[in-house]
Here is the input.
Amino acid sequence: MSDSKHPTFKLDDDKDVLGRLCALSWFDGVRGEYDLLVNVDEDDARELVAKLTAWLDAPRLAARDRLTGIVPVACCHSTGVALIQSRAGEWGVVDTDWLSMAPNIGLESTGAMRDWYATEVEARAAYRDETGKVICESCARFIDHDDAECDDDGIYTCADETACSAACAAKEPK
Ligand SMILES: [Zn+2]
Here is the structure.
């Protein structure tokens, strides 16, 4: 056995029993060996996964209702779409109508929520699709398609190089 760190939990398939049974063990760092916590069948395993998932998701889902004071990362008034990030780090595309509503109104109940995304890349792609805007690869601002230049590799940058340089400079750490 190597000295590399042991995984905290270990699953073994117990083949000596009728049907499938999973042995969930926990690594006891003091004794340096695994302790069997529980044996679970398939139904128990599904229930355990569901409960752990719900527990893991709870802060992220709760943050969806705590958006007071959230400032959009990007906002396109002509198409009525905004990109936001919750306090739990989740990304969302919303109707700009919501921005003018009472801030304590939950997004989900207003109908202004379009969708939540696990990653920034997915959210920005959705925002791009809904607004027709593109991201400048230099300054990372959303700009109108007509205000962008596209090179042979399909990379968009600001047509206005002065504004682009100013935006890049503004992001430099002081
Ligand atoms: Zn730019």
